[in-house]
Write a structure and sequence with these properties.
Elements lengths: L2 H8 L1 H5 L1 H13 L11 H13 L13 E2 L2 E2 L6 H13 L3 H26 L2 H12 L2 H6 L5 H20 L5 H21 L3 H18 L11 H28 L3 H15 L13 H8 L7 H12 L17 H30 L12 H11 L6 H27 L11 H26 L4 H34 L2 H7 L8 E5 L5 H6 L4 E3 L9 H6 L3 E2 L4 H5 L6 E6 L12 E6 L2 E5 L10 E2 L21
Parallel strand pairs: 3-4, 3-6, 4-5, 7-9
Antiparallel strand pairs: 1-2, 6-8, 7-8
Helix pairs in contact: 1-20, 3-6, 3-7, 4-5, 5-6, 6-7, 6-9, 6-17, 7-17, 7-20, 9-10, 9-11, 10-11, 10-12, 11-16, 15-16, 15-17, 15-18, 16-17, 18-19, 18-20, 19-20
Amino acid sequence: MNFQSELSSRFHWLWRWRYLSLAIASALLLWNLNYAPVWNPDEGRYVSASLEMMSPLDGSTPDWVVPHLNTMPRLNKPPLVYWCAASLFKVFGPSVANARLVSALAAIGVLLMLWHLGSAAFNEKTGVLAALIWVSSMLPFTLARMLSTDMLLAFSMTLALLGIYKIAAPQKNRAETITAIIAAGTGLGLALLAKGPVGLALPLAILIAWLILVQMKKSSNTPVISVRIMAQIPAALLLAGVLAAPWYLAIGRSHPEFLEKFVFGENLARLTGSTAYHDPKPIWFYVPVLIIGLLPWTLFLWPAFKNLLASVFARSSPSRSTPAFAEAQDSELKNLDLQNHARWFLWLWALAVIALFSISSTKLVTYILPALPPVALLIADCFAQKTGVKALRQATALTIGLLGFIALLLPILFFSPKLLADKIMPRPEAAPFVLLMSAILILGAWSLWRALRARENSSFAASAASTLVATGALLFMALTSFMSRVAPYEDASSMLIALRPFLARGDQIIQFKTFQPSAMFYTREPSTIVDFVNTSGLEESQFRSSGIFQKDHKILQQLFQSPHRVYVLTRWKHAHWPTLPKHYVVATNNDYRLLSNRPAPAGFVFDFIAPRKRSRPLSPACQNLSPDC
C-alpha cells in the first residue's frame, strides 16, 4: 500500500464523516455571536451605519445607496457590508448577533469553497481538512464573529479565484465552464462592492502572474494563455460589471465627487501614505500578524513551503507525442502536474495579498485575512505528501514546544504584578479563563507528542491534524468567553447597554474628544460629538458644517446648562474639568467615563475599573478644558 492509500485509510473518519465535520465546523462559526457588545470603533461604525441604512436616525426615508453614520454620509467604503447587515436587521431585527451573522455566513462560504477547491486541485480529504484548518485558525475564527468588510472580501476573493482557477484548468465541459465564469464574475462583482478596486485588481494580477509562471515549467497539463481563457475572463468581468456598476453609477449621480475621493482619496492615499489614516507600521508588520493569526497551524508553513520546492524540481509529464505518455504512469504524472500548478496558484494568491498590504502605508491586522484561505489549503496539502513527512514531523515537534510555551506564558502575563495582573481585569475574574486556555494548550501539546511517537507516517499525520483542529477550536471558544468578560472593562459599549434602560425622552448623549459609533446603535439616537477629528470616513464638508459635530470644546459648558439630563462619554484623561459647571461621574471603566449634569439615575451602577487602573495621574493640560489634552 502506498503512502497516499495508507493515509487515506487513516483519514477514513474524515472521509466518512466529512459532512458531519463540516456541519460542526459551520456551527462553531455560528456559536455565541452575541458573546460581547459591539467593539468600537471599527465594528461600531459598520453596525451603526447598517442600522441607519435600514432606519435613519433623523427620521428620513431609508437610503440604500448612500451609507450614513450619525446622520452623515459615509463614503469611504462600498455598501455590501451595510446591505447585508441592514437586510438581516430588516428581517430578524437589529441585534449584535444578527450583525455578526454577516461575517459568520461569509466564513462558512469560504469553508465550503475551500472544500470544493481542495477537492478540485488535490482530493476531497485535502479540501475537508483545509476547511477545518480555516475554522480552527485564530484570525478567521475571530473575524467570523465581528462585522467588517474583511471577511466579505475574503469570501468574494475566494469565490472569484475559485472561478478563475476553474477557468484556467484544463478539461472542462460546457456546464463547468459556465459555472466557473459565473463564480469568477460574481466574486469579482462582490469584491468591488465589498472593498472597491482592490477586490478586482488582486485576483486578476494573481491570474496573470500564475499563467506566466507556469509557462516557465511547461508540460502537457500546463494552463496556457489561450483564446479560450481570453474569452472567458472578459465574460466574468462583464458579469462583475453588471453586479457592481449600478451602485457605482447611483452613488456617482448623488455624490459626483465620490469616485475621485474613493479611488484616489481613499484607496491610493492608503496605499501611498499621502493621507495618514492610522499610525505608520513597518513593512514587516504582517509577519507577526501571520504567525499569530494562523495559530495553532503557524509552523506548518514550513512543510507547505517544502512542497512548493518539491514542485519546482518535480519531473514534468512527458509529451503526448511520446510513447511514454501511453504507459501506466500517464494518470499519475498528469495529476502531479496539475497539483504542482495548483500549489503555485495558491502561493501566488497568499503572497500577493500579503505583499500588497505590506507595501501599503495603512496597515491593519484584518487586511491579510484574504490570504488565509490559500494558506489553509497549502497546509492541508502538506499532510498528504509522502515527500514532506520529515518536515511535517519537524513542524509538529516545534508546535509542541510553541503550545507549551504559550501555555506557560499566559499565566505569567496575567498573574505577574509587573505585567498584566489586575491591569485589564481583576485576577480572580481572569484566572478561570487563563487556566482553561493553558490547560487546552497543554492537552494539545501532549496529544501532538503522542501522535509524533507513531512510527507509521500515515497514523502520525491523521492524529496530528485531528489534534490541531480540536486544539484550535477549543482554544478560541475559551478565548471568546474570555473576551466577553474583558468587554465591560475596556470598551464603552457595555456602559451604553447598561445605561439604555435608564434613558428618558429628551436625554442627550454627548461624546467629547472621542467617537464611539456603537452609541447610535444602542441608543437609537444621534450623538453630539465635540472636538473630534474626522477619521470615520464622513463627508468632510458636511462634517465641518454639521451641528452634530462641534469643533469648539467650550460648547460643553452650554450643553451642561440644558434642562434635560445630559450624558458626556469621554476617555478617562478628559474626565476632570474644574471649569465645568457641577457634574457627576455616573459610570466608569478602564478607559471611559460617563459624566452627567445630574446624579446617576436611581438603580444605575456601572463600575468596571481594574484594581491597577483606579488611580491615574492626569497631565496638566487635562485639568481643564484645554484643546491640548
